[in-house]
Design brief:
Length: 205
Amino acid sequence: MTDHAQLPTRRDRYAEMTRREIVTAARQLFAVQGYARTTVEQISRAARVSPATVYAQCGGKEGLLGTLIDMWTAAQLVRDIIAACEAVDTGRAKLEVLAEGYVAIYEESGDIIRIVERAASSVPVAEDFLKTADERHLQAVRQIVARIQDIGDLADGVSVEDAVRIIFFHFRYDQFALAADTFGWGVDRTRRWITDRLESAILRD
């Protein structure tokens, strides 16, 4: 028998739709104007709701920035990448899957990363959120590298933490964008180049 008490009500569905519209409006405005220059009033107009609704549904600008951070660092895509890395058998295969995962994250959340990184230089709350994002990033990579060590594919003399930092350095968004966009290498060449460097740096021959 269906438990009707657990089904979302029309009010619940409307509230979720409103929240999504507010998040979308904030994401677009933050990307164009920057976090600091965007106001709650501008977000409310773009989402066609009152400023009070922006605060009630999303916690104002800070709450919206936190939501965007979660969309970037705690989404199902991140869990899927970790699971896909777990499913393959060699360190090289795990790095290949991880590299493809980074590309997917950047395609899905590159604008969010730019929003947060630009805001972090002048807005303390954005700086704190960026630290949280980096910590989540490092923890996810740490899980993958620990499995590379477990199967004996981590190079001699390279610790898990060393390998995590090497991956973190090479696959940071700004590094990836520098090669793919500024150098004009494109996504595929950049992914292959970084993956080759990581294999040489952290995997056993």
